[in-house]
Amino acid sequence: MRAMLVAPSSERMLVELKAVDAAYPLYGSLVLDPVVPLAAGSVALDPLVAERLGLSLGDMVRIGEAQLKLAALVAQEPDKVATPAIFGPRALMTQETLATTELIQPGSLLQYDLRLRLPPAPPPSRWPRRCAPTSPAKAGASAPPAPPSRR
Fold first, then answer.
1. E-strand stretches of 27-135
2. pTM above 0.85, yes or no
3. Cα–chain center distance at 103
4. Could you tell me if 134 and 27 are in contact, meaning their C-beta atoms sit under 8 angstroms apart?
5. Where on the phi/psi map is residue 52: left (φ > 0), alpha (ψ -120 to 50), or beta?
């Protein structure tokens, strides 16, 4: 979701919001500078945003209807490469914080991603037993009917 971030100086910048839950990230690691947990009422920004708007850690910024504390800068985001359509620098927050922005309204353009952490794959030695192809006759199914002929 894209939104306008407003600095204390009233300067504005379009950012790409990403709201995450407590399980984030499932793979890799999120590196914030300074190393702090992402908490409700705070936001972590791409360093480009802080540089362009002259922001410092601890500054209050506005996104939507929420006044948020700049808690950290995003030094490394593990799934940034997996997000092909990023239209601005990232603003990272908790799902609870996103709700306080009041940006989710009828007509808002949102994208929800459901990511799963799956158990490790079975070792290759078990693949032939688990993934052996089955013919229709062995599976108890009949062959599909032949298509009608044209004369």
1. 31-33, 42-45, 60-63, 66-76, 90-94
2. no
3. 17
4. no
5. alpha
